[in-house]
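FORM 7B: Structural annotation worksheet

SECTION A. Query
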Amino acid sequence: MDGILPLLRRAADAAAGPHGGGHRLHRGLPGLLSPHGRRRGGGSRRLAVGVRPRGARLVRPRVLVLGGGFAGLSCALALPASRFAVTLVDQSPSFEFLPAIHELVSGLKRPAELRLPLKPVLAREGHRFRRGEVVAIDSAARRVQFAKGSLRYDILVVAVGAADADFGVSGVREHAMPFKSVAQCAAIGRRLRSLLRVPRPGRVTIVGGGLEGVECLGEVLRVRGDRDFPVTLVEAGPRLLPGAPAPVGRHLAAHCEAAGVEWLCGEAVERVTAKTVKLAGGRRLRSALTIWTGGPAPRPLLAESGLAAPGRWAAVADNLRLEGADDVFVAGDSGELPQPLARQAYHALAMGRHCAREIERAERGRAPRAFRPA
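SECTION B. Predicted structure
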């Protein structure tokens, strides 16, 4: 657990940005709850929570947080247990520091260094953790259904992250190795090292020339060293690192060429099998290991629960409330702001903390404020 805390401090520093107001150590995740600049905005109605007649016993509003990633955990830890009954739900028992998972491929990091058990971290703050799979959200009944059981809420924070975008390519889920979690990247590392134990390892194919694909490529080359096996990077778009300035993509392409990496831009993948990657242009690559870094896609849960249109992210107002629902907030990768943001950890951290502040403001009867990204 201790090894992850410096990484979280750096992530919190990035999230605070130039408007941050300094950091304070917080039990559980030091630095995660640093103050952040805010501005007025938003037009949602006041949440009717935390209201009590004079002399009546206060009933703490039930805040249910779905997702134990950067957004969900930062939101939960920013809410005081003295005023809110907070429960965080996740399928995994641990928070995972996703910005460094590529280093598991080469063995620079070990899985334990990138995981933080959620239950004790939340318990220190007086909050509850429930491990489970969310199968449905009934916003009308204010109830979340799990594979086993259900929970009611007064306020819901949806921070379930993103799924892998497979673009309907046949064979991806069956034959390509995904690159989205600690377990997945550790598995890629084990598979890569097993390939190196044979005389002729065969080709490693990385599909996706965005940031994840490039990070993966760097770790594969680190493992390869001076060994001789082919590495191919396939990108459907016209250049590598499409989100970066064009000179960066050109520099990367030159580096790939110098390292003996075959890079194929403007080549969509049509099918993946156990031993091949077929490109839409007709070429078939023999591939001993295929790694899929196709980017994020909305989780089907959002549309299935009526929080988003099919295949779309949940549309939120500038204060991170779900459009048309005062008691539902969306943070992190799951949401789509009026002005879209890059789906990065530092934004998720800031969005989680903003949701917590908005919940507190509503409980105190104060007007909402817009989220101000760093």
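SECTION C. Observations
The longest helix spans residues 345-363. The radius of gyration is 22 Å.

SECTION D. Sign-off
Analyst initials: ____
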